Amino acid sequence: MTATDLEVVQESIYDHPKYYDLVFGADCAAEVNFILACAKRYATGKVRKLFEPACGTGRLLVSLAKQGYEVAGIDLNPKAVAFSNQRMRRGGFPESAWEADMSDFTTRKRYDVAFNTINSFRHLHTEKQALGHLRSMGQCIRKGGLYLLGVHLTPTTANPSETESWSARRGNLAVNTHMWTIDRNKRTRIERFGIRFDIHTPSRSWRIEDVLVLRSYTAPQMAKLIAAAEVWECVETFDFHYEIDEPVEVDAACEDVVYVLRKR
Ligand SMILES: C[S@@+](CC[C@H](N)C(=O)[O-])C[C@H]1O[C@@H](n2cnc3c(N)ncnc32)[C@H](O)[C@@H]1O
Fold first, then answer.
1. What pLDDT, on a 0 to 100 scale, did the predictor assign at position 216?
2. Are residues 95 and 184 in the same domain?
3. Per-residue pLDDT for 225 more than 70?
4. Ligand 1 site, CB within 6 A
5. Which atom of ligand 1 is closest in space to residue 117's alpha carbon?
């Protein structure tokens, strides 16, 4: 069967947590180690309670719960929340995710460290939503606690990467993923990306096609936003290699950046 023979559905990839998890779950250990290393190095006081806005399938929450941390998360997608809660239950932990919009939410508890590692923040399409998010996170995190915010920036001295492909396999399930740029509007800072999952099992091959709409940030736009929230001090920056001993300096050529923000 050729790729063009595949049965195609136009659906949100986030409505398919099982495939999403296989495609994006590979880097879990590196992310978990990095989150905990940042907590140890940059947070003041003890770190016991962790929070993830846009937690998706809960892949990071459950890994951190297994290490003894109390975890919680929110996500806009009910299927992702249900998947995350089911996974927590199966691991013997309390259900800890609930549906909420990360641009405007409050939590009853205060958490020590929060993380948002793979670009989910760019799903917020306006400055108002982005500021609302940083301020909501300020309410959620205690003083001296951290917010680790991972963002794919738009470089201003180099051309941004336009396509990406990768594959993931678990048992009889294989998912080939391709992502490409549809358009970038410099004025509105809204970018659209096509993404498809080609899913192969012994009994069926099919394709999910989706369009991701993301807001773009250059390094100065991101710095301005963080300052405008008046909640966070940026104490360090890293790239997506997650090497705790190799911080990076954010410059005009940088693409993948994790901001280590500490609550004032
Ligand atoms: C790229 S996934 C990341 C999931 C998870 N953080 C991870 O690392 O696997 C982006 C997630 O953001 C969620 N999302 C998008 N907009 C949101 C919003 N306004 N509030 C909360 N979650 C949102 C989507 O439902 C999706 O689960």
1. 97
2. no
3. yes
4. 14, 24, 54-57, 59-60, 74-77, 80, 101-103, 117-120, 123-124
5. 8
